[in-house]
Amino acid sequence: MTEPRIETEQDATRPLRDDIRFLGGVLGDTIRDHEGPEVFDLIERVRIEAFRVRREEVGRSAVAEMLQGVDIAVALPLIRAFTYFVLLANLAEDIQRDRRRAAHTAAGEPPQESSLAATYRKLDAAALGGAEVADLLTDALVSPVITAHPTETRRRTVFDGQTKITELMRRRQRYAETEPERAELELGIRRQVLSLWRTALIRLARLRIQDEIAVGLRYYELTLLDVIPAINAEVRAALRSRWPGVELLERPILRPGSWIGGDRDGNPNVTADVVRHAAAQAAGVAFGRYLRDLVELEKTLSQSARLVQVTPEVAELAAVGHADPAAHADEPYRRALHAIRSRLTATATAALGTPPADGVRDADAAPYPTPRALLDDLDAVDASLRASGDSLLADDRLAALRHAVETFGFHLQGLDMRQNSEVHEQVVTELLAWAGVHADYSSLPESERVELLAAELRTRRPLLGPHARLSDLAAGELAIVRAAAGVVDTFGAEAVPNYIISMCSSVSDMLEAALLLKEGGLLDPGEPDGPPHCSVNIVPLFETIEDLRGGADTLAAALEVPVYRELVSAKGMRQEVMLGYSDSNKDGGYLAANWALYRAELDLVDVARKAGIRLRLFHGRGGTVGRGGGRSYDAILAQPAGAVQGSLRLTEQGEVIAAKYAEPGAAHRNLESLIAGTLESTLLDVEGLGADAEPSYELMDDLAARARAAYSRLVHETPGFVEYFRQSTPVAEVGDLNIGSRPASRKPTNSVADLRAIPWVMSWSQARVMLPGWYGTGTALEEWVGGDPDRLATLSDLYRRWPFFRTVLSNLAQVMAKSDLDIAARYAELVDDVALREQIFGMIRDEHARTLRMHAAITGHDELLADNRSLAESIHNRFPYLEPLNQMQVELLRRLRAGDDSELVKRGILLTMNGLATALRNSG
């Protein structure tokens, strides 16, 4: 009997290597055919030399020497070639990931961590009571919020081409090499690669906000319209089957949101018209999907009245279903669905101003007043089908449509509004002066501001009359809030659920926003003897480390203001707070920012408990570790006890959106991981510290202080640091990438504080320093340990037991694995001041080495990615593509700064930035 063959790691990765080899060959053939043998030969020599560098057969200068002085006409196709090599390798890795996942399932192995199946096993083992679960999951919500933060460097056309190649490659693997179908698919892949090669990688013009709205909405058509309702139905059924008799998740748990078109913090392109456009476009997607589904249902639910009986409700719908009484006379479901489609057409026409596609023009059809009314009619059809034994039909497209309407309503997604507290202060100062309430509100101390604002929130008198003369700023802000009120009137309160206050640091910051909402028609002061009500949640955003430290006190003080507490009471005693990951990191460094966020959550949870409110946290995470990135499931489990409470919201930004939601399988996995983490963090004890919690918190207080001090010594206290940053990275060129509608800086200054977090992180990533993801941590750990083995053992124990500390070190390892100080040294050579260069790069190099040593000592891993072999393999595989792109970028930056500001050199730099962002996969 033959022993079963054990699959080795090399066996498992062979399909990936074969795919990369095939795609690389196709790209090579395309380049040779269309750029000529000389360009192709140079690209091949550079590629081979880069592989030799990786194998340490030659020094790091080998590729740089080959590219020194290369003609820009040759450099451009070389840069494009390595960018496309990386792009094709990315899709091959995605296919391999799915291939391994399928093999895991086929082998009958236990469900993987972060899957709902694994979570259900844990819940079953915990033996929780139904009443307890129902209380903890009251008003449960998991809300991924898509933002337009510009870190996705790929054009939509390139993205579409990559998607087509991915689908062809998936189909190709089903056939043997000798089968004709495979040859036809490979021909199709060659066509797509050629099309990509002939397509420009970078945009000529900056994205408009309208383009960003359209890009965000296309993920609904690609995946979310199908995946989100299906997951909602699956989770509800799974939980109710475990706790029967308890009506868990009365509302769908997964409800998406968006900032695109509502986030005007630093983006003057967001106007009242843009708010209306964003809401209408989103609603149009929902209406369009529902109408298409109804058309298909009319085709399929063809039961004859001679063969089935329908309920009185369906009979009533059927009676008004067609203007022509003879049409489908004995097919009641078709007539009933036609009636529903007529009313939905009237609803969409009234809301959007134009008749939708797939609609029914019926002048007598009355619009649905609410999504619930539409759902009632669909539920009537469902009940009738089940009553006649046709549950199989009810469970198909009709069920999907019902779940979609329940999830998306008429609005599709909640559009958040956001503005900076400084702007609110300016506008409120102007409004109060115009109304004669106070000549100079901004001069008042905090206590008097709060007293004045609270009094104004009580009165029904508006501050402005119809002929008020305001500055452009104030007029624009009020117009935006009034536009949001119009959206709420048209699509319901869920269409604009939240108003976020950036850089919030005081109670008056919160009340100023409330006053604007009142003046714009979203906050009703109530009757003389009644409480006020606001249709939107007022959400403070604490961003800097100091604001995070004071956030709990700010919230507690706000809840002591009677009018504000009444507003929270009117929202079911639910208060949302947003936490900013990007600015806190830029402010105090990686470790200090992460601990400030954790401490803020602990304090906020304590305030919420004492005040008797339910806290919902909104996490403003970016794609990179320096902006709060990392695996969402791990991040959720790393939250402190009581911080999740059945609900959370988090931002999804830039290239992360495409990676997570462009393909149905990936979208399903990522969304279920969010729910899995939320359920586990809410229903199970995942912190794992027990009685050691307080000592561990105090230890982290100490580490965070040391880390912040080390970071500040470099970033905020070293003279010339900003000059070093601007000369040693392509930060000046980031704004020319045309990847978003927002300016790169909040203000036109040279201050690190005013620079947006995305160009800050992206620039360090391009230069392969990755500084925001680790700097200061090594010093903090080394100083605290101080050579004491017992202290080192304490940190190692925390790494094993505490999800927060383990996640911090794991994310640090991921970002450091993508750093390359040999490449970074080449960028440092761009700094003119030799003494400044040596001082600052020396600090960076020393801290990098220190952090590596301490990570190894604490984790016991000699390799950074010992616990993430797939990422380690990925970084190893793409090294030969990163090397030429980095070396070419340095070469072109050197030429630009020496005075060669030709359009081709500038284009080459932008192309290298695009290629490196593609290679690193999370760029900003």
Q: Mean pLDDT across all residues, rounded?
A: 91
Overall shape: globular
Helix amount:
55-70%
Identify the strand order in the major beta sheet.
3-2-1-11-10-9-8-5-4
Backbone CA Rg = 29 Å
Topology readout:
Layout: H1 9-35, H2 37-54, H3 61-67, H4 72-106, H5 116-126, H6 130-136, E1 141-146, H7 156-172, H8 180-197, H9 209-242, E2 257-258, H10 272-300, H11 312-319, H12 332-352, H13 371-387, H14 391-408, E3 414-415, E4 417-420, H15 421-434, H16 446-458, H17 472-491, E5 498-502, H18 507-520, E6 523-524, E7 533-534, E8 537-542, H19 545-559, H20 562-570, E9 574-580, H21 582-588, H22 590-611, E10 614-620, H23 632-637, E11 647-652, H24 655-661, H25 664-683, H26 693-715, H27 721-728, H28 731-734, H29 757-766, H30 777-785, H31 789-801, H32 803-817, H33 821-828, H34 834-859, H35 869-897, H36 903-920
Parallel strand pairs: 1-2, 1-11, 2-3, 4-5, 5-8, 8-9, 9-10, 10-11
Antiparallel strand pairs: 6-7
Comma- or semicolon-separated keywords:
mainly alpha; single chain; about 900 residues; 11 strands; two-stranded antiparallel sheet; 36 helices; globular; about 60% helix; disordered N terminus; 9-stranded parallel sheet
